Amino acid sequence: MKKHIIDSVDKLVRLFHDLKRYVSDGVVLELTVEQYDPARTIPQNDHIHPLVRQIKRHLEASGATERPEEWWRGYLVAEYAGQEVIPSRYEPGKYVVVNKLGGTSAMKKAEASEFIEWLYAFGSSIGVEWEN
Questions:
Q1: Contact 126/58 with Cβ under 8 angstroms?
Q2: 115 φ/ψ sector (left φ>0, alpha ψ -120 to 50, else beta)
Q3: Residue 58 to residue 60: CA distance in whole angstroms
Q4: d(Cα 8, Cα 10) in Å, to the nearest integer?
């Protein structure tokens, strides 16, 4: 299956001519058209990490257990996405947090924007004093 991102009329016309040629030669095609949802951008990624670090520092200074930044990023994504807590299959009496969304690298551009807004709102609600 070949994907095409059509962001101009010229690309659409070229694709149409290619498809017309295939159909004229007797090839049966199945087409699916979806609105393109680009992945998060590098500037968004560069924005997320400092916010996570500031929230991490604030929470740890307030008594939370010190953990690596990657742990805090995963925790915050799980909080943002709505987490599910299930009993551990391997350690009786312990629980596992299931992050339904995945990591920040799996986010699309719009979702990363919403996550950045959520980080600001969450951080502000717990008293983070944002650095520039």
A1: yes
A2: alpha
A3: 6
A4: 5
Q: What domains can you pick out in the chain, each with its CATH number?
A: 1-36 (no CATH), 42-125 (1.10.3790.10)
Q: Which residues pair with 81 in a beta bridge?
A: none
For residue 102, the SS3 value is coil
1 pLDDT above the threshold of 70: no
- Tell which residue, 66, 82, 68, 69, has the closest CA to residue 118: 82
Query: Tens digits of per-residue pLDDT, 47-87?
Result: 999 999 999 999 999 999 898 998 888 889 888 887 777 78
- For 19, other C-beta atoms within 10 Å of its C-beta total 14
